[in-house]
Structure formats: C-alpha cells, structure tokens
Amino acid sequence: MLAGLLNLIYFLDRSNEFGLLLGIGYARSFVIRRALLEALLLTLMAWVFGILFSQFIYGVLNAFVFEPRGVALSVLNWRALQFTIP
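The structure corresponding to this sequence follows.
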C-alpha cells in the first residue's frame, strides 16, 4: 500500500511534465508507456536493492547474533524470496 501511495505522489508531482509532453505533440500512449516503464524499472531496482540490503543485514546478524548462540541460519531462503516478487 505504501508503494502505491509513493507511486501516486511520484506521478502527481510529474503531472506538469506529462502535460507538457502531451502539449508538444507526444501521443498519449507514449506518455503512458513511458510512465509505466519508469515505474516498473524503479520497482525492480528497489526490489533488487532491498534483497541485497536485507541479505547483507541478515548475514551480519547471523555472524554476530545467531551463530555465537549456536543457531546458524541460511542466508538466502528461496521459498521466502518468492513472496517478495513484485
């Protein structure tokens, strides 16, 4: 839900740019495709960054918190990862 609200704010902030593109003659379908492609790329980059960052933090926690207590956890769980696919 938060991602949807952030996307809405992002698009509302750029409404002048979209209006300008339409005003100088770009097709409405081009502007929509461009906006959707940008949103998709931002989502995928954020997803990859989130996975990498969480794995780094998980590895640090595993090394300094879990392993000293005798509980070793796997760093990357593919089954849990499938629930994060946007």
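Residues 28-66 form the longest helix (39 residues).
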